[in-house]
Amino acid sequence: MIFVAGILIIYLMIDSFLSLNHCCEKTRRLYWTAMSISASSFIAVFLLPNLNLLSIFNYMIVVGCVSFIPIAESLGKKESVWRVFVYLSLICLSIYLPRLLLMRDYGGAKDTVFEVQNIVRSGPAKGIICSYMGYYTTACNIEDFDAYVNDGDRLLIVTTASQDPIPYLYEDVVISHYSTISTPTFSNKLIEYWNEYPERYPNVIAVECWYGDLHVDEDSYIMQFINDNYEKVGEGRYYVFYR
Q1: Where along the chain do its domains lie?
Q2: Neighbours of 13 (CB within 10 A)
Q3: Is the pLDDT reported for residue 236 higher than 50?
Q4: Angle (nearest 5°) at CA 114 between 112 and 120
């Protein structure tokens, strides 16, 4: 269900396109203008890595919103069979609507807007709705990073398969990785990167954990590098800090 928005946009585009013959010239111009804008967004995002096709359709939201206009205009102008088709479209929309605000919390769980239990109250994600654990994790991380990371530090965050780049924004720091993509790698390429850009060499490293229990394999390349060159200075609830 994480691709509901993209699927719904595709459905609305098809439905509204089939309705254009029953719409006035002004509505048709509006539709094709929105389609041009959305198509440009689609092409631009398509050139970016690490996104699947359905995720890219989410960026065609402009034509998705405009699609309601020709659909609404066609309600009184189509044959009865088309009326049924349009009504079924609206029913389908009402079914999908509760899933539109689907979100993924810090634990990977998926919640709808009806299952939201809190709102982030501070930090760069302030105002974001989330689950209870999403809020709690964020609040803990803000507190822990404030205790162990200083403005001006050169920070490297080490995680497992997936990384949230938001913690880099908790303090005014220099990011010591060449990428903030959600699936970073921690190999000897980092050493090559730091040799080329020594101003990015980290003086503080935060390693993902669960109340002191590291998520990163102690035998991994990055942990051997950390243990050889840094000392542990503190344990947060979801990160261990080294300097």
Answers
A1: 4-100, 150-242
A2: 20
A3: yes
A4: 80
